[in-house]
């Protein structure tokens, strides 16, 4: 059962990329030209952090809320800490709510793009660089970016 569950993660990612469901976000290449900024609109982004199952880590966003202008890139930092004296590999899975906002939330850099190795008792700062697309529907004034860390398969964990 564990092997089946582990194999489902990449299939789930592909399914979510194709359908845009479950709050999965997209990856973009950052455009240094900020001409897409909607100067009179502000959106509140809330940051959330979770650990799944028996992963002995702590995760928290450095700031809980941020006001952003659609069309401009911002950075948010999460702090993750391994509570054991053994090396552990984890994978962060992002989601955005409300679900419609996930279509307009774009990341150019994210710790969720690759598995994260934390050595015993190590603490790391991890960055996500993101943009809320200028075409975000007008009725969405607030959204939540949530990360859940899962234990990833590794030879050591």
Report on the structure:
With 157 residues, this protein is mainly beta. It has one domain: Ctag/Cox11 (Ctag/Cox11 (Pfam 04442)), CATH 2.60.370. The chain contains one helix and ten strands; from the N terminus they run H-E-E-E-E-E-E-E-E-E-E. The chain has one helix at 2-19; strands at residues 26-27, 43-51, 57-61, 65-68, 73-82, 88-97, 105-110, 116-118, 123-132, 142-151. Strands 1-7-9-5-3 form a five-stranded mixed β-sheet, with no helix packed on it. The longest helix has 18 residues, at 2-19. It is elongated and about 50 Å long.
Question: What oligomeric arrangement do these chains adopt?
Answer: single chain
Residues in helices, as a percent range: 10-25%
- In terms of DSSP E residues, the strand content is 35-45%
Tell me the CATH topology.
Answer: Ctag/Cox11 (Pfam 04442)
Task: Give the radius of gyration.
Answer: 16 Å
Please give the count of helices: 1
Give a short synopsis of this structure.
This protein is mainly β and 157 residues long. It has one helix spanning 2-19, and strands at residues 26-27, 43-51, 57-61, 65-68, 73-82, 88-97, 105-110, 116-118, 123-132, 142-151.
Write the layout of secondary structure elements.
Layout: H1 2-19, E1 26-27, E2 43-51, E3 57-61, E4 65-68, E5 73-82, E6 88-97, E7 105-110, E8 116-118, E9 123-132, E10 142-151
Parallel strand pairs: 1-7, 2-10
Antiparallel strand pairs: 2-4, 3-5, 5-9, 6-8, 6-10, 7-9
């Amino acid at each position: 059962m564990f092997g089946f569950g582990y194999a489902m993660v990449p299939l789930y990612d592909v399914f979510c990329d194709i359908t845009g469901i479950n709050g999965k976000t997209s990856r973009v290449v950052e455009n240094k030209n900020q001409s897409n900024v909607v100067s009179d609109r502000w959106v509140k982004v809330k940051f959330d952090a979770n650990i799944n199952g028996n992963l002995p880590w702590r995760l928290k966003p450095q700031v809980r809320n941020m006001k952003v202008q659609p069309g401009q890139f911002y950075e948010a930092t999460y702090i993750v800490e391994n509570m054991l004296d053994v090396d552990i590999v984890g994978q962060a899975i992002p989601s955005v709510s409300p679900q419609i906002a996930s279509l307009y939330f774009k990341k150019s850099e994210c710790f969720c793009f690759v598995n994260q190795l934390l050595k015993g008792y190590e603490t790391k700062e991890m960055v996500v660089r993101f943009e809320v697309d200028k075409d975000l529907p007008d009725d969405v004034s607030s959204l939540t970016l949530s990360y859940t860390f899962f234990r990833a398969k590794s030879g050591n964990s």
